[in-house]
């Protein structure tokens, strides 16, 4: 695809950096997208091949979990979505874990020691640097379809975040104390995502679980409060993942409950 004036210039060499990665042939760079996930879904409806990937310079309507807005400043972050068509029986939660691993590994490859919070938040010293939103369509013409959207704060200074986010958000630049290339982060992320995609397609869910747990120290032995229905809540200790990727929490009684609602879990001090 020939370069377009609306493409982010610093990301144009991305295709070359991906080398022989098959997805490189289906990579599109855009200026401002309403949402990279929405653009990929539109391409999927037109029959786009698996691996179709959109990388945007900015998003006007980026979103996170529960429909929340994702702050997507122009030229500062990595905003990328990829179309996958996994086996029909695949669980989208496992792909969420795999995408989180890929994003975390990309940051670490670039020298930033980020960790994962269940299931897919990138964090450093309590501040969020990025996250993953996986959307599934089970009755697509080609079978199961997923769009994996990932946002990583790369070049933000503290003043680049809106005031409500400055106390809880960070960026790779802020952690490193120096600028970092979005190109390097994007290439590392897409290569890692392709690797973990191949592991899941091969049925190797055990490797995904092990790697995710290695990157998520808070998933074992951390005290949390879990909000239940009708305003109820209880406390317990995190105890890893169940086979489907849900969080296991051990109550004081010793009983282990499985938590699937992400926003119901809050880390506690002590």
Structure in words:
- Helix content is 26%, strand content 30%.
- With 270 residues, it is α+β, with helices and mostly antiparallel strands.
- The strands form 2 sheets. The protein has a 7-stranded mixed beta sheet with strand order 1-2-3-7-6-5-4, with helices on both faces. The chain has a 5-stranded antiparallel beta sheet with strand order 11-10-9-8-12, with no helix packed on it.
- β6 (127-140) and β7 (143-153) form a beta hairpin.
- α3 (92-109) packs across α6.
- The chain is globular and about 55 Å long.
Give a short synopsis of this structure.
Helices cover 26% and strands 30% of the residues. With 270 residues, it is α+β, with helices and mostly antiparallel strands.
Order of secondary-structure elements: HEHEEHEEEEHHHEEEEE
As a whole number of angstroms, the C-alpha radius of gyration is 18 Å
Mean pLDDT: 88
Give the N-terminus to C-terminus distance in angstroms.
53 Å
Show unreliable segments.
none
State the share of residues found in helices, binned by percent. Answer: 25-40%
Principal-axis shape:
globular
Structure keywords:
single chain; 270 residues; seven-stranded mixed sheet; five-stranded antiparallel sheet; 6 helices
Produce the secondary structure layout.
Layout: H1 14-18, E1 27-33, H2 36-45, E2 53-59, E3 77-84, H3 92-109, E4 115-117, E5 121-124, E6 127-140, E7 143-153, H4 172-176, H5 182-201, H6 205-215, E8 220-227, E9 233-241, E10 247-250, E11 256-259, E12 265-267
Parallel strand pairs: 1-2
Antiparallel strand pairs: 2-3, 3-7, 4-5, 5-6, 6-7, 8-9, 8-12, 9-10, 10-11
Helix pairs in contact: 3-5, 3-6
């Amino acid at each position: 695809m020939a370069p377009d004036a609306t493409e982010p210039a610093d990301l144009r060499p991305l295709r070359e950096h991906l080398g022989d990665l098959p997805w490189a042939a289906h990579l599109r760079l855009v200026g401002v997208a309403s949402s990279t996930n929405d653009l990929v879904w539109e391409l999927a409806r037109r029959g786009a091949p698996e691996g179709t990937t959109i990388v945007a310079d900015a998003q006007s309507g980026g979103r996170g979990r529960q429909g929340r807005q994702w702050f997507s400043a122009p030229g500062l972050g990595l905003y990328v979505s990829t179309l996958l068509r996994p086996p029909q029986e695949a669980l989208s939660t496992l792909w969420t874990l795999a995408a989180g691993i890929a994003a975390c590994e990309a940051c670490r490859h670039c020298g930033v020691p980020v960790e994962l919070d269940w299931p897919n938040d990138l964090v450093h010293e309590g501040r969020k640097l990025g996250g993953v939103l996986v959307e599934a369509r089970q009755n697509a013409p080609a079978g199961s379809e997923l769009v994996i959207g990932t946002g990583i704060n790369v070049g933000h200074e503290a003043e680049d975040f809106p005031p409500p986010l400055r106390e809880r958000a960070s960026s790779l630049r802020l952690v490193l104390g120096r600028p970092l290339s979005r190109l390097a982060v994007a290439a590392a992320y897409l290569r890692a995502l392709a690797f973990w995609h191949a592991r899941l397609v091969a049925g190797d869910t055990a490797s995904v679980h092990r790697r995710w747990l290695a990157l998520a120290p808070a998933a074992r032995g951390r005290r949390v409060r879990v909000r239940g229905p009708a305003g109820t809540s209880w406390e317990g200790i995190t105890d890893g993942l169940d086979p489907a990727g849900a969080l296991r929490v051990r109550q004081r009684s010793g009983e282990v409950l499985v938590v699937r609602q992400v926003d119901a879990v809050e880390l506690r001090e002590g």
